[in-house]
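To whoever is on call:

I kicked off a structure prediction for a single chain this morning and the downstream step that reads the tokens threw a length-mismatch warning. I double-checked the sequence; it's 656 residues and nothing unusual in it as far as I can see. Pasting both halves so you can look.
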Amino acid sequence: MSSDHSVPGSDQLLDTFPKLLLNHAKVRGDKTAMREKDLGIWQSWSWRQVADEVKAIACGLASLGFRHGDKLAIVGDNRPRLYWSMAAAQCLGGIPVPLYQDSVAEEMSFVLENADVRFAVVEDQEQVDKLLEARKQSPGIEHILFDDPRGLRHYDYPFLSSIDHIQYEGRRFDSGSPEYFEQAANAVTGQDIAIMLYTSGTTGQPKGVVLTHDNVIITARNGIIRERLTDQEEVLAYLPMAWVGDNLFSYAQSLVAGFTVSCPESGATVLTDLREIGPTYYFAPPRVYENMLTQVMIRMEDASRPKQWMFHYFMDHAKRVGTRILDDKPVTVIERLIYRLGNFFVYGPLRDVLGLGRIRLAYTAGEAIGPEIFDFYRSLGINIKQLYGQTEGMVFICVQPDGEIYPDTVGTPAIDVEIRIDDHGEVLYRSPGVFHSYYKNPEATASTKTEDGWVFTGDAGYFAENGHLKIIDRAKDVGKLRDGTMFAPKYIENKLKFFPFIKEAVAFGDQREHTAVFINIDLEAVGNWAERRHIAYSGYTDLAAQATVYDMIQECVEKVNEDLSADPLLGNSQIKRFLVLHKELDADDGELTRTRKVRRSFIAERYGELVEALYSDVDSCHVETQVTFEDGRTGMLAADVHVRDARQFPPVKQPH
């Protein structure tokens, strides 16, 4: 490999983010490090410019009294100066603590208090207002710095200032102490804490996962080596900065490999910006891929008949041979020629419309992705693979190797990762990415990580005959029906969510006679479906109660039952009763975490009368629910929720 395509930062001396940043400024100083779209125009910064910006912020923080070990909260959308502030804190031996930007003030207060945060960098007025509210409960916050000044002109607080002002003060500080920054940056070691990332808190308060520079950088570098990534990659940073995946893909791997990261203008422009950037390396949770596919199918319904015929003809051909071509497996000359023709007329234009025209590697993780969706993208020639990871392991635990892509597995162990399955079926792993500790929570640390470094994932799984890991469900969620049949709620929920009309599902059944589910419809997909059938509706609640919508959802439920009937372990856990919830599950109502994970026990308690209706013979149930609006106001939502029975299929016999 040429020097431009080697793995930068492989030198063991480059064991921290400050050292990596300073090295990039010297080695590839003029290469583009970051971009941001502002008012429709892409702005760019080279590695040398990024290092200068980080230095100014770091020195500005130092002038405010920020020292080694201090915590810096980061709140906002993906913005270059928020990433630079993370780097600046690390250059001083400090610890960035990113928070989810859609968290309410009360949620932020817990993290700010728990993490002992003294300094915060936020994006805009909205986040400043939340920090001011949170500061009433967390008075330890001494300084709040903001990126976007709009709306903040008349905010007169001695502890509030702009990043521009801090950078100005930082450059003055640097001129008076020119050796300070480099000495501080070089004093940081691989064993020092690099970042604290808080878990989503599905079963209680979030926990602060403490990760060292060694944890993050060694794991990031191993991922780069395994996938042969280079400094020529392009990444779009659009997922929450508080999520471990963004920290790995948009920050850590960029600083190890030296590739370019672009920040979209806003959440609403992500798909447009994706098309403009054309990333080569991409991560998205299954829901994003599902939404993209839904949009494609909706648009195809509006296309002319000839275009529809051409689309379906070539997509049927791609389903037969596309994945084999991608995996470099044999196909006939005729099949390859037809695929090339399809690539010209359909696959290539479709990849460009999706913004995936230059993709060399795409990942998905977090939830299971439907085999049909997985195969759709791979048949287009997009190298999408599943990975399995945790915040506590700095993401990488298992990754699917090239040419060994199976929709029902999460791959083989990543480089330097050991995996074993304990006697209860729980997956354990050990790796260089294993977290240091849970902050101020030695009991939780001891119950999650053994003295010799093995981490309990909380997931039940096993190794398939092909050597790949298969995850069944969360170990604590796996239960049994009264007849002794295994009940795996997440497995059933994911099967339901494979259908584009179903956005969320919550399954019940442990210690019950049968399985029953709550379903959230996808308003956009079902709304489009209803409009084409001239079905009038006034909103989500009205649409969710329509008999024709129930008929369509019942078909999806019964297809899942048919699939389950073929599973020797889960055949008796088919869904007997279901209902379509009258409202969308919402993080603001406490029903989902900020990473959109279902809070099952909370939902079961909140909608107790609906759960009981599923296990009775009633066909409807009146419910009144308090909801939180976007502006923070609350109100009551009343509805009559229908309950339906689903057809069940004779299960295959269980093995003896």
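Update from on-call: the warning came from a stale cache, not from the record. Cleared it. Sanity check on the structure: Confidence is low (pLDDT under 50) at residues 1-6.
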